[in-house]
Amino acid sequence: MKKSTSVDLGTQPIGKLLIKQAVPASIGILVMSLNILVDTIFVGNWIGSTAIAAINVVLPVSFFIAALGMSIGIGGSSIISRALGANNSNKALKTFGNQLTLTLLLTVTMIAFGLYYVDDIIPAFGGKGNIFEPAKIYYTIVLYGVPFLALCMMGNTVIRAEGKPKFAMYAMMIPSVGNLLLDYLFINVLDYGMVGAAWATTGSYLLCFAFILWFFLSENSELKIKWHHFGLNLPIIKEIGSLGFVTLARQAVVSITYLFMNNILFELGGETSVTAYAIVGRMLMFALFPVYGITQGFLPIAGYNFGAQQYGRVRESINTAIKYAIALATLVFILLMIFPEEITKLFTSNKDVIAETPSAMRWVFAATPIIALQLIGAAYFQAVGKATPALLLTLTRQGFFFIPLIFILPIFYGELGVWMSFPIADVLATIVTAYFLNREIKRNLKIEKE
Predict the structure, then answer these.
(1) Is the separation of the CB atoms in 52 and 279 below 8 Å?
(2) For a Cys staple, 364 with which of 218, 285, 353, 422, CB 3.0–4.6 Å?
(3) Is the separation of the CB atoms in 366 and 422 below 8 Å?
(4) What percent of the chain is modeled with pLDDT above 70?
């Protein structure tokens, strides 16, 4: 069988290439999302509904620190894809070395900060009342594994930039399966409670790191870096930073959103509403896995062909990705509108939570069919190295629309106003993204440029 190389990104038919890139990405995201979903089900049934809320409090903190790795990964991978497309292997290697150095320096610093201020951070993110103690237990243990998660998220995007989607898929599947097995062992068999849930998560990060380390040391990777590649290079750092800041800003806004949502919902409906949001949040991660898979598959294709100045292929990849993603998002929408009660009952037997969550879920996913354009549009600008529009479009939904709405609408509609904010923000952000993406295609992706 012919070995896949980055050259395939510039030569194979776009439809076939997108499926080749997106299917492994979707499977990896599916398994990772199932892990989060089943992990929540295990915790809810074996420990209690308060434990679900506790984990939801911790997630934005640990995910933000891990997002440092993801942002460095995506920012650097955009450079790597374009460098490989332009046959500049030296820049690709130097970029990868700088990614590793930056990820370690930043995440270790953030971990130290996060552990020192633990008693202030947890209440700030909604860990109050009965939620505080289990949240602190989970937070403290998981934070030790977050640097490994950051390295995994960074490495995964680089694997994808090399045009090796199957290995990127394996990197997402291994920790997910490992976490579920460790969950069963630590929570159900050994009865370690929240301590067991936390160590299962940390252990899964270590498994992922071991696999990614093996990949880059093996013959499967084209990026064979040497010690001198680790030395920080200011122009590369600036380019990684400008593009990576898009992802970091997105995750920062997600973390801020969790902070606001947990506190607003705690005030409006107490622990029941926070738990309902935790369940809906898990479904947001899980249900949209095929759409996120298309987006992940699209990134290296757009970046490589833009670097190779094959603008017709870039344009075709945008159109194809949007069509595939809209079709899949519509299917997800139909399923969630029909079965929200059944989904909620998988997570908990708490009658109050079961009564509240289905309605919230329907509101949150009401505009799902159109989010494909929003995701692909923002991803395009990041893939081709246009940091400013990528940043603005990434922040449009949650930063410019959603956060203001969750403060304004509850004044008039109470808790319902919080849930209504989701589809309204989706519609507004999609309109803005469609305008800027259409303008970009007309101005800079004219097929005759080839």
Answers:
(1) yes
(2) 422
(3) yes
(4) 91
